[in-house]
Amino acid sequence: MGFSVSEDFVPGCLFESWCNHYDSDCNNGESFDCYGLSLFTLEQMSQVCEEIKDYIGKLKHASIPLEEQSEILRWSENYSSSPTEAEIKEANSLLVDFLEQYCELTEGIMSLCPDCEYISIMGP
Fold first, then answer.
1. pLDDT tens digits, residue range 25-55?
2. Distance from C-alpha of 22 to C-alpha of 26, rounded to nearest angstrom
3. Between vectors from CA 90 to CA 3 and to CA 52, what angle results, nearest 5°?
């Protein structure tokens, strides 16, 4: 059971959270890699979702640093050198929608199989 997102559309905040909560002990000492099979315990993935929910709150309250906002604009494919307030708001809204769906789907998968040992992120 799973869902798929092209690596081109994985926002930096989600990738960073995966890296932060990745435990190489359950992955033969390897580091997180989008192109391999990366295993997370359900507890680790719950931590990822909680971290992402905190980030969603920051997005909703417009408390994202400028350098991160630039990344969000690139992710939303808004390459304007001087984005308008409306473009920034739209990019944040798109990212909020994406991240909320990610958390909802991930937590839904975990609730269907609460006895599973791992959840994986794998690619490409």
1. 666 666 777 777 788 889 999 999 999 999 9
2. 9
3. 45
- With a CB cutoff of 8 Å and minimum separation 6, the contacts of 46 are 107, 110
Give per-residue burial for 42-63: e unless 16+ CB within 10 Å, then b: bebbbebbebbeebbeebeeee
CA pair distance 72, 68, nearest whole angstrom: 6
Round to whole Å and give the CA distance between 26 and 10. Answer: 23
What pTM does this model have?
A: 0.82
> What's the distance, Cα to Cα, between the start and end of the chain in Å?
17
Nearest by Cα to 75 from 48, 94, 100: 94
55: amino acid identity, one letter: Y
Q: Are strands 37-41 and 118-122 parallel, antiparallel or unpaired?
A: antiparallel
